[in-house]
Amino acid sequence: MIHGIWSFIIAYALVNLAVFGIYGLDKKKAIMGEWRTPEKNLIAAAVMGAPGALIGMIVFRHKIRKPKFYIGVPMILVIEAVILFLLVTKTDIVSSILNAS
After folding, report:
1. Up-side HSE of residue 55: CA atoms within 13 Å toward CB?
2. HSE-up of 8 (CA within 13 Å, CB side)?
3. pLDDT tens-digit profile of 22-77?
4. How many helices (H) and strands (E) in the chain?
5. CA distance 26 to 16
6. Model pTM greater than 0.90?
7. Integer Cα distance of 68 and 72 in angstroms
8. Is the separation of the CB atoms in 45 and 56 below 8 Å?
């Protein structure tokens, strides 16, 4: 079970690092006037890694004036946190997921 938890934590950290990088790369492209990542892809990335997206928005000052981002990304983060809390508090669900791997 411990192995499954660490695998999840490492995978989630890597996904968030990638999302952070996507936001940073898009900001760099915006500054340089190059082709940009579509907003729907940035939102999809935020669904996969909301902490990375939110940190990327703050660090790179990217998409901070657009409501779909400054409201949407924190909402995605809160929803993910609630889901994680529910999964962790329902240990039978977590155990069945982790024991399957």
Report:
1. 12
2. 12
3. 999 999 999 999 999 999 999 999 999 999 999 999 999 999 999 999 999 999 99
4. 6, 0
5. 15
6. no
7. 5
8. no
